[in-house]
Amino acid sequence: MKAIVTASVAQLKQAPKFECEVVDEVLSGYTVDIISDETNGWYKVRTHYNYEGFADKRHLNLDQSALAEWESGEKYFVDIGSADVLDKPSVKGYMIDNLTKGCIIKVLGGTVEGTQYVEVLTAAGRGYMKNKYPVKLRPAFDFKDEKAFRDAVVKEAETYLGTQYRWGGKSPMGIDCSGLTQMSYMLNGVIIFRDGAIKEGFPVKEIPRENLKKGDLLYFDGHIAMYIENEVFIHSSSSKYGVVYNSLDPKSHIYSEVHAKGLLACGSIFAH
Among all residues, which ones are annotated catalytic? Predict the structure, then answer.
């Protein structure tokens, strides 16, 4: 059985209790597989990228008819850090929901005449959103334009610059290292492993350091970053409070010795 995530950000816990460690976050509009019976108000779930944890039942819609309707038709994602969903197409409308970047929605028509709003269907219901915030969900990447993809994933990662570090986080409210890389790839149509490792069954393969290009991934002990160019990389750092640039070049003012000396592997979806 599947369920729709209805909370803007639903935390997945290591065990079925609120005080337990967060292992992941799933955003509104994504679907998850229910893989255990309810335990104290929690369900064990599996995401579409094969990550498991316990979700609060209040953040899930288990209605299978609603699920069937939700999974049909074209999807969009919220392409701004935070977007209000209002009860009418006006800045004076009542806020019925607030969705973070990456949440999945449906757009129900064109811009409402005389406004800057479109009607949307979120996982929690209908409302109105500024028409520039929804972006069509990108299809699975087909490897036809490598440069465009590399540019796109770096651009996506850079939209999170300044976001605070949050263990298990996946949104502009707080994001961890693998959350940053996974979301940057996922919003461009590629599913990579949720944690900071190269794992069989996912498209990232190890490459030599000298083959690094824009958008490739850097792996450290328990950490992951995205390479940009000229030894510069972007990552979500717990020690630096969030998403920042650093460099592997000792001559750079943003040089990080711990990362330069701690690089374990490099990975790319374009490895041959």
Answer: 177, 223, 235
